[in-house]
Amino acid sequence: QVQLVESGGGLVQAGGSLRLSCAASGRTFSRYAMGWFRQAPGKEREFVAAINWSSSTTYYAGSLKGRFAISRDNAKNTVYLQMNSLKHEDTAVYYCNADSSVVSVRAGGDYWGQGTQVTVSS
Q1: Mapping DSSP to helix (H, G, I), strand (E, B) and coil, where does residue 74 land?
Q2: Alpha-carbon dihedral sign for residues 42, 47, 49, 54
Q3: Which residues of 38-63 are buried (b: 16+ CB within 10 A; e: fewer)?
Q4: C-alpha–C-alpha distance, residues 45 and 86, integer Å
Q5: Could you report the per-residue pLDDT of 56-112, keeping only the tens digit for each?
Q6: Secondary structure (DSSP) of 35-73
Q7: DSSP 3-state assignment of 93?
Q8: Could you tell me if 97 and 107 are in contact, meaning their C-beta atoms sit under 8 angstroms apart?
């Protein structure tokens, strides 16, 4: 199995940027696809972005493409989410996700982190 720990969340003004990190541990990280979801208060968890092991394939929620970018560094067992031009409606808990394929992660994979809070002030 794999354990996921998010970091990098915090308070940022609208229009600003944040870079989230998700550090993976465990012997099964190699070849795993990774992704990000988010959940705002009172709303369902929603897909943000996903990336395969080789970084050759990425997926984004349509409303976020162009502002958010997912990347990974397999040598560091870490996946990143660069968030630019942040809006108040981006405020949510952001969760890291992993599974054996990028298609599975896009739908919500088997492994989840505990989440990191992102708050965007208006």
Answers
A1: helix
A2: positive
A3: beeeeeebebbbbbbbeeeebbbbee
A4: 18
A5: 999 999 989 899 999 999 989 899 999 999 999 999 999 999 999 999 999 999 999
A6: EEEEE-TTS--EEEEEE-TTSS-EEE-TTTBTTEEEEEE
A7: strand
A8: no
Answer left, alpha or beta for residue 75, where phi above 0 means left and psi between -120 and 50 means alpha. Answer: alpha
Q: Which residue has the tokens 């660069």?
A: 82
Helix (H) or strand (E) holding 2: none
DSSP tally for the chain: helices H, then strands E: 1, 11
d(C-alpha 99, C-alpha 104), whole Å: 6
